[in-house]
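Before relying on records like the one below, remember that each one covers exactly one chain. Contacts with other chains, cofactors or solvent are not represented anywhere in the record.
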Amino acid sequence: MSTSEALKPPAAVHGPPESQEPCGTFGPDETTGATSTAASRGEARRLPRGGVLWALVDCNNFYASCERLFRPDLKGRPVVVLSNNDGCVIARSAEAKALGVPMGAPEFKVRDMLRAHDVAVFSSNYALYGDLSQRVMRTLATVVPRVEVYSIDEAFIPLPAALAADPVAVGRTLRQRVAQWVGIPVSVGVGPTRTLAKLANRLSKQDSAYGNVFDLTPETVDMDRVLASVDVGDVWGVGRRSAEMLRGRGILTARALRDADPLWVRQRMTVTGWRTQQELRGMPCLTDDDLPVPRRSIRSSRSFGQMVRTLEPLREAVATFTARAVAKARAEGLVASCIEVHIRTPRHTERPRYDETTTITLPCPTADTGLCIRHALTGLERIFREGYLYAKAGVTLFGLEPAAGRQGSLLDLLDGSHEHKARRERLMAALDAVNLRHGRGSIRHGAEGDPGAAWHMSQKYRSPRYTTAWEELPEVLCR
């Protein structure tokens, strides 16, 4: 039975998208014609252990939706977004997916296809995507008491008893609020666990009749039928290798994984797989600590738009990447103990190749951009060799730890460096505030060079930074 067949009849589940009617049944059993859900019998909703239901809000085709937000003429036209340096396809609108544009395809391989179907092509515009993501998350927080941002386009939302009484109505409110305040379409999946909420969100997009809100709880659907319609590889937390292993053992669906021997699952898929199985059973196992993996490093790296031969453009690139990485560290309240600098020539070329990395240990953990740039450039000069054409450079911060609560040195108080450090921290805070308000790079260190230099990555199709750059504000013509 296919997923779409298992989800029938959609109209009887939630009604029209605009309807505020409570969720009904999942539909009659195909063999008996009986509806057996608890909701249909008027039973009260039972909350899982932990006392909350989970909702997952996911922005639909997020990058493509961001590009369309200020381009209403693109409505109905296929849209794709390319990776850094316009390398390959990393996002597609629903129309582009329908055309069969492969995800991850190199741009030059699908160029003729994109032109033939008049596909709108954009370079990545992360300044725009990041700003709109923050607006979506802030809007969600106006409806519910708690939002756990999971990625740039996803957020988990715990629904306590008061909200869990009618989660579909909450989901529709979230959709309507985000659409009205930000203009980005989102889908909402609800389940007793994060894993089931993730699965519900996926199912919500498979049939427009659901209005992009789907409630996957035992009271509203036949869990056996739904889970039996989902391929095991589509379960959140089951990777490609695990899916192949499970299929080799005859475990083809989410239901089969749910019903497998827990001891065997733990032995073959470790505790991570066991937690996924328990979540499929409606037992919350993923804690807040399991979701965002503690950051151990911050990397900023790009291929050059034009290869470079001399040290000076490499210095500008390394300084720029260092500044970006350190700014991220400050934004997350972290300081770094080590900097790794990496440069390399193209990997696939007949020319002489060179690939080198060096690590610099900082005198003390810091998030001072100027100090980090100085040490990163020292590392670059250590590994730079003349005579090569360089195609890429990168900077990675290691030894990250929270800036707050870190133990200082008594020597700082004695030699006056404590006051100097405090001034530098205020300077960095002012720099971040200006760049946040006026756009990244509004104020930068001189070592970063000209922002229009040829080594910067190619962005031939980048849209304006509508929401973060004054000079790129959208223009409205009134007649």
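The longest helix spans residues 417-438.
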